[in-house]
Amino acid sequence: MLSVSRIEAATLASWPALETVIDGQWRARVAAGFSGRSNSIWCLDPADDEDAGTRLAALAPAYEAQGLPLLFRVTPLTGRNTFATLESQGWQGIKTSLVLSMDIGEVTGIDPAATLCDTVDPGFLATLARLQGFEGNTLDTFTAIVTAIGVPACGIVIAAEDGTPAAALICAQVDGIAMLYDVITADALRGRGFGRRLIATALSWAAENGARHTALQVQADNTVAVGLYLAMGFAFRYPYHYRRKPEIPQQ
Question: H/E element holding 108?
Answer without folding.
Answer: none
